[in-house]
Amino acid sequence: MLTNSNFIGQYGQVTTEWSGGIIDMRTHHASKTENRIPNYAGVSGAVDENGFLIGTYTGKILELGLVDNSPTNMYVTNDGTKMYLAGSNNSRIYQYTLSTPFDISTAQSISNASAGAGVSGIYIKSDGTKMFVVNPGTDVVNSYTFGVPWDITTIVNDNKTYSIGALDTLPYGITVHPDGTKFWTAGSSGIREFIMSTPWDLATTSYSKVATIPQDTSPRSVIWNSTGTVFMVLGNTNDIIYAYSVPTAWDITNRVLISNTGTMNNMLTNQTSTNPTGFYFVPGTKNFYVSDASRRAMFWFTSNAVDQLGNGVNGGRLSFSESLILSGFATPRTVQFKPDGTAFYVSDNTTNVIREYSCNAPWTITDATVAQTVPIQIKGTSTQFASATRFHFSNDGTDVFFSDFTTGAMSRYGLRRAWDISTTYFKSTAPSAIATSSNGFCFSRDGLSLYYISGVTFFRKTMTNPWDITTLSAATSFADSTYLGANTLTGVWVSQKGEYLYGMTAATARIYKYKMTTPHNLTTATFYSHGYIEDISPDPLSGLFMHPYGDLLFVTDQTNDRLYKFSLNGG
Length: 571
Prior knowledge:
This protein is an all-beta fold. It has 2 domains: 61-305, TolB, C-terminal domain (Neuraminidase, 6 Propeller), CATH 2.120.10; 316-567, Neuraminidase. It contains no helices and 40 strands.
């Protein structure tokens, strides 16, 4: 059984060796009933150069045992008609033609050429005139020139080498910047960057920097997307592909892990994949390839559909819209807007204040200004709450509710003037605490349901009278250990009609969406989709608010003291 996934999909039944399964860019979950698949690095739109896979997909296998007992890295042309495979056992590069573009089941081996002892990494210039290879046996990078573009039998050694043995004794993979000014190797010490002062001239190489890969001690492949904003690494120790985002294009320095596949062995039910030795993602397409030396085979995957979180079909990247620096905040926590979008409120977990902002245009936060700041003086019958920065307003703004993180106690306050937080007065306290260490709560639009979170579990309590927390019922719950894994929920929201439940995790910077087949009934909730919050490192994201129509989403960032706004397709 494959477990613990948050990317979703189904393998096609291509041969008798395959069976249904779900792939997750972090871990996996087996199922033959789902028809969704992975968000690879979490980008909306068709699966493309940004390095992710979304939609229904199929996979096929190419047996390589008769060609080379130790297949490693590969390169596939952007049009999918040619494929090149490094075979370290025979120290050769094998060229294939694909009669159906990208489909390895139509591959025909047409030629091969020697490329140095134990060749493992391969990269070919986009015009087919230059090839770079790396050999872990000699710790050397070599370059070759094609006499006839793309014809492997015409390669000529440039007699230009660059030894990286002093830096990495086991370099396995190589990739080159599209303009030929940089290349990167994947090896036992991590991902190393090298500069070529003359493009594509190995003789002008100098060492630049290294990015260690703490997740795996034996990186075998490194691949960039075409914009240089995401790179992927195949780790042979854990048999996992990791995806990293970088704030500066083509710069490995400030990488942030955003996802991973889980073990390759779990990708292929009824298959054994304990030694994945090569990986390639074709920029601008839906295709990626994995080779396995133990299985002596290559696997091809392609994605066929795409959508965003808002449409609920599968995962996607939420589109960043705008942000606001929350000046004076130390750890911004909860955020909520007035229904008309003309004002919003943010609490600070350190100073225990709640601040009201006025929007110059509805739902626009960039130029929002502070209207007032009010200390949170939350009192129950006799208890002063210590950490009551989780709050929620009633729809008409005449009530505001606070919960205490430490004790789970909840109180209701009235507002003498609607939405004016300086006019609060105590009304009531819930008869029993909600969960201690709860990172957030919200109410349904009708005020009859209270939702709150703790760990990876969602809870719901009902009320006999709208907004009357003295009538709270016993809780029902829904736990998602499959897709959330061990990632603690830090935000919760429910759609207006109670059909969809949303949860946010800080560790993965993701929004998870669940469908309740019976509105507001947690026992009927099932995983529906997820979205990756782009352009934000996985900082402690703590506050979650959604526009009533489900097309805008707002989150607070405790590290950078910001409020972010994202757009969705709906939901």
